[in-house]
Amino acid sequence: MTISNLGPRRAGVAAIAVAAGLAGQAAHATEGYFALGHSPVQRALAGAGVAKGSEAMSATINPAGVADLGRQFQLGGEVFVPVRGYEGFGTAFVPSGEIESESNFFVVPSLAYNMPLENGDVLNFAVYGNGGMNTSYPDGLGGCGSVFCGGPAGVDLIQLFASATYARDFGNVKVGIAPTVAIQGFKAAGLGAFAGISTDPTALTDNGYD
Q1: Are 69 and 52 spatial neighbours (Cβ–Cβ below 8 Å)?
Q2: How far apart are alpha carbons 99 and 138 in whole angstroms?
Q3: Is the overall model pTM greater than 0.70, yes or no?
Q4: Integer Cα distance of 56 and 112 in angstroms
Q5: In the 8-state DSSP scheme, what is residue 137?
Q6: Do residues 147 and 189 lie in contact, with contact meaning Cβ atoms separated by under 8 Å?
Q7: Higher local confidence (pLDDT), 128 or 78
Q8: pLDDT-derived band at 197, boundaries 50, 70, 90
Q9: What is the distance between the alpha carbons of residues 137 and 116, in angstroms, rounded to a whole number?
Q10: What CA–CA distance (Å, rounded) separates 47 from 62?
Q11: pLDDT digits (tens, 9 = 90+) for 110-163
């Protein structure tokens, strides 16, 4: 941009826009339990990778995306470090002060192999996971002793997916299908204070993984 070639008014608007962009603050957020992608490229595209496949892991968000890719083997893992906590101010059932979850470091693996066939078809095999947002709040805190007064508290969701993809490029159209097997587990602990509003109080908390 050459501001000198703009009129005074437009130059002023351009200068304000540039200044506003430089003053922006970093956003602190995660994608939660369910990822927008399962590789560094897909994460960088923030979900837009579904429109254009560029790697073997593309089959995990759009099976047709690997129809024109060559032979690839991809192995990776994401290091996910979400720091969770809260600050209590004397609220009932919640200990006061700054309380942080003890589970803050997770490794989420991914694996994919893209295999073009001689007839133009493409097969792809991928294994990938979701998770890393589980929490673990300890016992022995102030007030009633723990978050929600029910002992050590937290939730944990683990998901593992395995997919087998068939894809083909027909020129202007690409098609793909990916039957997927999923294994998952979930547990919750320390939530007994909410039993009174649960439709099944005995199944709400402290029962291990389902």
Answers
A1: no
A2: 9
A3: yes
A4: 6
A5: B
A6: no
A7: 128
A8: very high
A9: 48
A10: 11
A11: 999 999 999 999 999 999 988 777 889 888 776 777 888 888 899 998 899 999
Q: Distance between CA 2 and CA 14 in Å, rounded?
A: 10
Average pLDDT, the chain: 84
Cα–Cα separations (whole angstroms), residue 191 to 43, 73, 148: 33, 43, 7
Residue 179 burial by Cβ neighbours in a 10 Å radius (0-12, 13-18, 19+): exposed
Give the list of residues 6+ apart from residue 166 with CB closer than 8 angstroms, or none.
63, 121, 122, 123, 176, 177, 178
Rounded CA separation 169/97 (Å): 58
For 1, 35, 154, 190, the CA distances from 15, given in Å and listed in that order, are 11, 37, 48, 54
Round to whole Å and give the CA distance between 146 and 45: 40
pLDDT-derived band at 1, boundaries 50, 70, 90? very low
